[in-house]
Design goal:
mainly alpha; 3-stranded antiparallel sheet; 3 strands; 52% helix; 5% strand; elongated
């Protein structure tokens, strides 16, 4: 039988006490879609370490920077999109590097005189007489 990895999860009262916020504030963040804690079989909210990192960002934005919840939602969505884009760029660069490595040392497939970019030392075209 394979062992299942269990993630640490914290109940709402523990999180509220740790971050010095009221449990209703955590429930509000969930209603607004800013946090999505998992649930136990008894329907208890369970906050993972990833949820806590997200909560810290929310609290920084609201407490330290004075951002309202609508602004927090926009910022969090933009952060996710930027993270996705960064992953796509890294994947694209890795693909380019693999392609360059695969084609390294191969002769050019076409006549350099027909290139879109001028090639130095290319023979001038022959003139017809």
């Amino acid at each position: 039988m394979a062992k299942v990895k269990s993630k640490a999860a914290y109940m709402i009262s523990v999180v509220a006490e740790q971050y010095e916020i009221h449990p209703q504030t955590l429930r509000l963040y969930e209603r607004e879609g800013l946090l999505k804690p998992s649930r136990s079989e008894g329907n208890t909210r369970l906050y993972t370490p990833e949820d806590l990192v997200r909560l810290e960002v929310i609290l920084h934005l609201t407490r330290d920077l004075g951002v309202n919840l609508a602004g927090v939602e926009i910022i969090l969505n933009m952060r996710e999109k930027m993270s996705d884009m960064q992953s796509q760029i890294q994947e694209f660069v890795a693909t380019l590097n693999r392609e360059l490595a695969a084609h390294k040392g191969r002769p050019p497939a076409s006549d350099p005189r027909n290139s879109l970019i001028p090639v130095i030392n290319a023979r001038p075209p022959m003139r017809r007489k």
